[in-house]
Design a protein that fits this description.
Elements lengths: L1 H28 L22 E6 L12 H22 L3 E4 L12 H14 L7 E4 L3 H4 L7 H11 L4 E6 L2 E6 L10 H21 L17 E4 L35 H11 L3 E4 L6 E4 L6 E4 L12 E7 L4 E7 L3 H33 L2
Parallel strand pairs: 1-2, 2-3, 5-6, 6-7, 7-9
Antiparallel strand pairs: 1-10, 4-5, 8-9, 10-11
């Protein structure tokens, strides 16, 4: 009889574990769908061009060998792996963009450790023949501006195939990814490299927009205002004006941002907008969500929270559908860590109470049976 109750207890416990650690991700993410794209000109022949569907998340902060407990590392990596796996299965995006801080200790770890982190990143967030993954550097990957060395910058570029400036063009949509730490404006060597690349892209976009300013022998693409992606948010005073389900909690929401640390400087922000003229800016770094208009009021900036439970109890990612004329966005809320813990507590309590009830009921039945 004891073995029978133990078997029931074990089966119920395994089912609870499977739900929390596997099925729950599909149940929660199934509620998020691709947004509907509205065409600016319904009669345009460009409607026949298939829009691009892509997914965005940030700040995975894969733990290294110094910060965090092994169970903390296991728990958070499994959470991110299952979310990514479920998202790819349910949404099947063409492109995935990760906006920096892929690692937690990348800016000070050894070469061997960095290689290990890079391999682990692509093991958790793999590419496929249907999905391409693009990344940009964050301060935890190479350090804040004044701690970036040519070696740390180059090893990130080599490991993740992610240069300081990347222009990805897909069906007339231009995605521009920039290393935020290179926008200090102090003339450092890797800053100058990024500034030169930005100048080239500025001229290239002008060429796409107006054939009269094109140099000879250049292959022109369709022009559309680019989508800018980087780790740091553009300059803002604080997160006070943000109104999101994954926004920063009070009083952190009211904390004044430090330029070049919490966000880009005001000067770099206006220079970037002037050069690139983005229709949409996507960023991370703060670990909290925020949607706000661009300083020029010609588009919006969406800041995403950390993808990891270690930094955010209720993380999220973004789904975008874009055409050269327009875009649509859905924010997908991921499983909430505290909710999963509560499911474990309630489920475990219910299983124990049920087993105790069945056990004493059986004992009472056996007692009256032999009376």
């Amino acid at each position: 009889m004891k073995n029978y109750f133990f078997l029931k207890f074990a089966i119920c416990s395994v089912l609870l574990f499977i739900y929390c650690e596997w099925f729950n991700y599909y149940v929660v993410l199934f509620q998020c769908e691709w947004p509907s794209l509205e065409y600016v000109n319904p009669t345009s022949s460009k409607k026949n061009v298939q829009p691009v569907k892509f997914m965005v998340f940030t700040d995975t902060h894969l733990l290294g060998f110094r910060n965090g407990h092994w169970f903390d590392k296991l728990r958070r990596e499994w959470q991110m792996y299952m979310t990514y796996k479920a998202a790819l299965y349910l949404h099947a995006p063409e492109l995935v963009f990760v906006l920096g801080d892929l690692t937690d200790e990348g800016y000070f770890c050894s070469p061997e450790e960095f290689d290990y982190h890079a391999k682990r990143f692509y093991k958790l967030f793999p590419m496929s023949k249907h999905t391409k993954v693009y990344v940009v550097a964050g301060n935890h990957d190479i350090g804040f501006h004044y701690s970036v060395t040519p070696y740390k910058n180059e090893r990130f570029i080599k490991a993740f195939n992610a240069s300081g400036v990347q222009l990805i063009t897909e069906r007339g949509n231009h995605f521009l990814m920039i290393n935020s730490m290179a926008l200090e404006g102090d003339g450092c060597s890797f800053c100058q490299t990024v500034e030169r690349e930005l100048l080239k892209i500025e001229k290239l976009l002008k060429c796409y927009n107006d054939s009269n300013v094109c140099p000879p022998n250049i292959k022109r693409e369709k022009y559309s205002k680019p989508i800018l992606m980087q780790h740091f948010p553009l300059y803002r005073h604080s997160d006070k004006a943000c109104n999101e389900p994954d926004e920063a909690p009070v009083p952190l929401k009211n904390r004044v941002f430090k330029e070049k640390w919490d966000c880009l400087s005001k000067e770099a922000t206006y220079q970037l907008i002037k050069q690139i003229k983005p229709r949409l800016v996507l960023s991370g770094h703060t670990h909290h969500g925020c949607t706000r208009p661009l300083p020029t009021n010609d588009g919006i900036e969406i800041t995403f929270p950390s993808f990891s439970w270690r930094n955010k109890n209720n993380p999220s990612y973004g789904l975008f559908v874009v055409s050269p004329e327009n875009y649509a966005f859905s924010k997908c809320m991921m499983p909430v860590e505290s909710t999963v813990i509560n499911i474990y507590i309630v489920g475990s309590s219910a299983i124990i109470m049920w087993c105790v009830y069945k056990y004493y009921r059986h004992k009472r039945e056996m007692k009256y049976k032999y009376v």
